[in-house]
Structure formats: C-alpha cells, structure tokens
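This section describes the prediction task in plain terms. A model, or a person checking by hand, is given the sequence of a single protein chain and must write out its three-dimensional structure as a string of tokens. No templates, partner chains or ligands are provided. The sample shown here is typical of the held-out split.
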Amino acid sequence: MSRTFISQMKKNSTKKEESLRTWGFTRICTGNFLLFTSIYLLLPLLPDVVNERIGGISAQETIFLFLSFIFGMFAVGPFHAYLGDTYKRKNVLIYSTVLLAASGANYLWVDSFAEVLLLAFMQGVCFGVATTAGITVAIDMTPSKLRNDGNVVYSLCGRLGMLTGMGAGVWAFREEGSLFVVYLSLFSTMLSILLSMRIYLPFRAPIGMKLCSSDRFLLKRGWFLALNVLLFALFPGMLLPFVSQGNKWIFFVIFLLAVAIIPFTRLFIKLSQHCQRGSANTTCQLAMDAGILSGMAVAYGYIEDFSTVENISHCVLGGIICTTLIFLFLTYPYYQKKRVRQ
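The expected answer:
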C-alpha cells in the first residue's frame, strides 16, 4: 500500500470515530427520548390516575404528590457519583429504569394516598438515577472533542421526549382514559430499557469515590444559573394541570421551554471545569424538572383561583417576563464572571 492510501484510511477512520452519528449514541439518545416520554406521559395526568384508583384526592393533597417526586430526585443526588463509579454505568441505567417502570405500574394497584406518595418518591429516585446514569453513559461514548455538542443533543432528545409525552398523554387520556396512559407510559419505559441493553460500554475500573458527594449531582459554580432555570421552568409548569384541555398555547410554551435546553446546557458546560460536564448537565436537567414539577404543585394549590387557562396565562406571562429580566441583569453577568470555558 502507498503511504497516501494508508494516510487516507487513517483520516477516514478518525472522522468516523469523531462523529456523533454512531449506533451507540443514537441508541442512548433515543432511550433518553423514550424515558422522558414515559415520565411526562404520566406526570401531568397523575392526579386523574390516582383519583380513578382511590378517589377523593384534593387539590392540596396533589401538591404533596409532586413534591414527593422532587424530593426523590434530590435525595438520591449525593449518591450519583458513587453508583457510577462502583457499578457498571450501563447497569445502573438499566436497573434504575426497570425500577422506574415497576413504580409506575404500581399505580394500578394503590389503595391509599400514603402508597401514592411513596410511589411518587420512588419514581423521583429512579428517574434521578436513570437520567444521571444516562448522561454519564452518553459522555463516555462520545469523543472528547464532541462532548459539548453531544451533551446538547442528548439533553434536547430528553426535552423533545417531554413534549411528546405530554401530547401523547392528552390524546391517550381523551381516547382511552387514565389507565391507558399508565400502560402507554410503561410501554415507552420498556422500549427505553431495550435500547439501553443494546449499548456497548467498556467497564471502567473504580477510582474510589466517596459514598456521598456533589459530583455528577450539583455544579456548585452554577447554583445561580440553576435557580434561574428553575424559575424559567416553573411558570410553564403551572400550565400543565390544564394540559388535558388541549390548548395549543400550552404546547407552544412547553415547546419553547424544551428548545431552551440548548442554550442552557451550553451555559452550564461553560461554567464547568474539566470532567465536570456530567455535573453541569445533571444540574441543568434537575433544575428544569424541579421547576416544572414545582409549577404543577403551585397551580394545584391555587387551582380554584386560576380555574381556566385564560386566568393562569396572565400569571405565567408575567412570571416569564420577570424571569427573563433576572437572567439578563443578574444571572448572565454572574455567568460571564464565573465561566471557565470559551
């Protein structure tokens, strides 16, 4: 072989290795899409599912339902680094998603509100572990030069899954009822598990992480930006209790929130040091999901005052404007001062 031919082969091989268009990355992104689809198929309509099973759930009690999910996501956070270091990361992703499916299935057999709160907490724990493990796996299989773009694509797939889940949930609830929503959510979760099982990821030897740490959980440098993202997500989240009405304006606002994950992810990554991309991405995702769920909790707390989409839309619009001003005049200057990447 000539030197020119060999050089061209190496060049083509390098290009292939540095592409995001691989089967492995496609599978992990599709699995993330389906994972978020399964969760957001169920969450906005969960009060209807619970009421159909045990009945008599007040709007105020529903607040604790969403707060339990949030508490579960945060409670497991300090253990993310230990789980990802001690066990095979692919297995952490698969087993947590299996437990997420099992928790969701148990809504079909609950007998009391206490059981519902426990299931919501377990779902929050499993969802928190699964999303963080998925982020770590996606980073591990992405070439170093493309990890910033890989993080953005992976996060966007999850948020598009969120949007798809909400739309599919509304359709399923109208056509077949709340139980069909649970079945559809389980089906989406099982597809996510199957795709995760098809991913190849070499085993990494443990480096000895502490049982509890902020690694792969919270990016300390990004706390102020995380609060802003939470507020950005809170006000659209207030619209979700009304999503079953099928108002197109709600889906448009949620679509804008889903697309906003692109610039937010880039901002968090630029605030992160070397090997902190996982922490940056997890912090961004956690802030957005916590904001959405908090928004639903607030809306149910004042459901009688809002009563219709038209009444709540003024509050949501005003909140989004205020949050945007906070970002422009407080958060962005903080980001410019603290960022460590160009």
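For orientation: The longest helix spans residues 309-338.
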